[in-house]
Specification:
The protein has about 110 residues and is mainly alpha-helical. It has one helix spanning about 25-110. It has one helix and no strands. The chain is rod-shaped. Belongs to the tropomyosin family.
Length: about 110
């Protein structure tokens, strides 16, 4: 039997150690880093927007509660005003009646 001979490889020999990445690979890595940064910034903005929305909703609820309270207070004040206006009207009518009686009485005394 003839001795075994190594066959010549049809591929060119590979360099030893890692080969440098092709230039387009760096461009892809940079683009991915930019997209990741954009995503993180968008998430931060979304988180801040949610916090702002929550704060605005809380403030709106607080103002609505305050409005309801002020409306109740206004209604009570208007009711009180109506009560005192009616009392004033009654007092004025009584005063006018008393003044008329006094005037009539003075006229009666003067005619004696």
């Amino acid at each position: 039997r003839p001795p075994h001979r190594a066959l010549a490889s049809p591929l060119p020999p590979q360099p030893q150690g890692p080969s440098p990445p092709p230039p387009w690979m760096d461009a892809i890595k940079k683009k991915m880093q930019m997209l990741k940064l954009d995503k993180e910034n968008a998430l931060d903005r979304a988180e801040q927007a949610e916090a702002d929305k929550k704060a605005a909703e809380d403030r709106s609820k607080q103002l609505e509660d305050e409005l309801v309270s002020l409306q109740k207070k206004l209604k009570a004040t208007e009711d009180e005003l109506d009560k005192y206006s009616e009392a004033l009207k009654d007092a004025q009518e009584k005063l006018e009646l008393a003044e008329k009686k006094a005037t009539d009485a003075e006229a009666d005394v003067a005619s004696l």
